Amino acid sequence: MALSSPGAGTTDAGSPVSPRPGRGLLPLLLVGNTAMYALYIGVGGVLLALQVEAVDPADKVTNLGLVAGVSAIFATVFNPVAGALSDRSGRRNPWILGGGLLAVPAMFLLGSVHTILLITIAWCVGQAVMNVYQAAITSVVPDRVPMTARGKASAAVGLGLPFGSTLGALIGAAFSDDYRTGYLIFGALVAAAAVLFTTCTREQRIPARESLPIRTQLAAFAGALKSHDFRWAFIGRALLVLGYFAVNGFLLYIIKDHTVLPAGLRAEEAVAILMPVSSVAMVVSTVLGGYLSDRFDRRKLFVGASAALSAAALVIPAVSTSWTAMLAFATVNGLAFGCYMAVDTALVTMVLPKAENAARDMGVLNIANAGPQIVAPFIASVVVSVGGYTSLFLVAAALAVLGALAVRPIRTVR
């Protein structure tokens, strides 16, 4: 693999090489991603589960699976489409700002509905808005950061997950009895981050490309997966994310129905404890993973090892229902997932089929993030119905092992 130097001219494809990132870009990427993950975790992992349970306690697992699965379809559709639109407009910041500002009315709508059908529709709107934001901010790294700094930039992006998870869980727990206000706070948080990012970062306009027919766009998306290394990176990410969301999408219910909590500890409070524990582990492994993968120029090793460690973490609560086992799971899984997301993001940017289609191809890859979220809730609800939460942990562990093996065929990255 040949690393591009800052300002080195063009890639083999003739596209401009990403310049040296401007001062403040990496902290702003951290802020932007922290706000995004805070909403995803706080809304999707806490408030939405409480809202669904309040509507129909008896069928909460099935209903949450339905809401999460259907809304994830919108995430899958809007992410690559928004990425392609920002490619053709030659801008990222307007899409970041637009998606961020629209999070406020989307969250207001979600907090105003009272049936499973309307909750599903409202969360679909929320997913659509957030994935416009996510597609654009994800593309900032391949746009503005040189290959030699991708590990550090990816670490800044990856740190958004532990920081955002902690913030989301704390806000979600604080407003567990008033989820309408909680929704508005999350929307305002994303809007503020979008305003800050777009105000403080200057972007160089990318040459705009003409609009393509829908059939051509779909063919282009499929064409990205014809690239051998990109395809295997896609498969590995999809498998790990599928296992991750099969468990974490139902974390509140797992704690309520599977875990033996200490006396006096509420499930919402337990989530607010587990997230910081996991986050500290994520921070350590994200920073170390990003730095060491740059230092040794080894991405596959770190990605495969962290996916295997995630599988080991998932076995812990499968064999024990104790609170201690859940704390151990949060710690080990945090170490694994933090390293995985930091290094795998760097790996993916190195196997993009065409530099000039970076946002579109990152959007295709983000189907590996959003797509499994369509399947995960349905799989999880079926597995829990048949074999309980223990079986769910074991299925997720098997998926993580397959994700670890999927990076082996990648040829152009070590």
User: How does the helix and strand content classify structurally?
Assistant: mainly alpha
SS elements, strand count: 0
The named CATH superfamily: MFS general substrate transporter like domains
Q: What is the chain-wise order of helices and strands?
A: HHHHHHHHHHHHHH
Shape: globular
CATH architecture: Up-down Bundle
For the record, the CATH class is Mainly Alpha
Largest sheet: none
Low-pLDDT runs of 5+ residues are 1-18
Total helices: the number is 14
Q: Count up the domains.
A: 1
Strand content: under 5%
Question: Over all CA atoms, what is the radius of gyration?
Answer: 20 Å
Q: What would a concise description of this structure say?
A:
This protein has 14 helices and no strands. The protein has 414 residues and is mostly helical.
List keywords for this structure.
Growth Hormone, Chain: A; mainly alpha; 78% helix; 414 residues; globular
3D architecture notes:
The protein is mainly alpha-helical and 414 residues long. It has one domain (25-205, 223-406): Up-down Bundle (Growth Hormone, Chain: A), CATH 1.20.1250. Helices cover 78% and strands 0% of the residues. It has 14 helices and no strands. α3 (93-111) packs antiparallel against α7 (179-200) and α10 (251-257) crosses α11. The radius of gyration is 20 Å and the shape is globular.
Question: Topology, pairings included?
Answer:
Elements: H1 25-55, H2 60-89, H3 93-111, H4 116-138, H5 140-144, H6 150-174, H7 179-200, H8 214-224, H9 228-248, H10 251-257, H11 267-296, H12 300-319, H13 323-350, H14 358-406
